[in-house]
Amino acid sequence: MAQPPLTQPARLSRPQHERIHALVRLISEKRFPNATTFMRELEVDRRTILRDLDYLRDRMGVPIEYDASQRGYYLSGPAKNMPLLEMRESDLLWLFVGQHLLQQAGNDEMAHQVRKSFQRISNLFGSTISVRWEQLSAVLSSKTAGLGEADLQTFRAISEGLNRHLEIRFAYRKSAKAPVEHRQVQPLHSAFVNGQWYLFAFDLARKAARTFVFSRMDVVTVTGIPFDPAGLPAIPELLQHGFGVKYSDEMPTQVKLRVSSEIAHLIRERKWHLSEEITPCADGGLILDLKVNACRELTNWICSWGPMMEVLEPCELRETVARTLREAVEVYEK
Q1: DSSP helix/strand/coil, 249
Q2: How far is residue 169's CA from residue 164's CA, in Å, rounded to a whole number?
Q3: Are 220 and 158 in contact (CB under 8 A)?
Q4: Which of 81, 129, 172, 330 could potentially form a cystine with 125 if both were Cys, beta carbons 3.0 to 4.6 Å apart?
Q5: Is residue 3 part of a domain?
Q6: Which residues pair with 185 in a beta bridge?
Q7: Element spanning 311, H or E
Q8: Residue 132, Cβ neighbours under 10 Å: how many?
């Protein structure tokens, strides 16, 4: 049976669409990946991988070659005739939701860039996609107080350093009254936490991981000096044990909190930490168990609930919260 022309391949299922694009990306990004690499990255069996590779070569004309000396695949030329990834109207809706929330993390310039990108993507689909920014903005919005500014140039420079594993240099001010310090770091991770962008990086002068606030950074420059992230702290894993942006490589502590019935429904409505466990009480309250690194952020959060949240364990945290609340009372009794 004659093969269909390369420009009109047989219709692919959505999962296969995504797999073949992922295969070409992996071959382009990695150094001679092989079937084992693809199986690990895409979580499919060898037969599926080999079938997809044959499809790319024979039906799509993608110049995928195998180098026996390197025991891996490579592209001997540009990948043309790749099928467009399908996008449904619902996909665009969720893209809008994600980008709409992302724009809350930056200033007006970043929000403008997000909107332009959304519009360019939606325009690619012409009349097949009818969703428009104005339509969605009329029915969906978000509001966050106390957002820190994330300068677009700073954001781009940090993103480049993170993606390409290049050291960055910048001026930093810890507080409004603190002197300007010049730092050179190896960027490891960035995160948007509680209305603020943070950079987690290995500080070369201090020889330790440090946390920086985007809005306190100035004149951020990508140095072009590469670094190997292997062996440096795995920040995402450490953050899982923290409460907010503070983290530690120490073992997390078991924290037990008694929550009154007045706010029990508010605690149930949100996921406060990955480790949390909730036990209902007979009086309508609950016990909240967390396995976290006890820190100032956790103390402040507990104090924000006043008498409606009580620390049962550990004793050190209970004493810290009690002392903080007494100091707060003293301010009003002067």
Answers
A1: coil
A2: 15
A3: yes
A4: 129
A5: no
A6: 168, 203
A7: strand 309-313
A8: 15
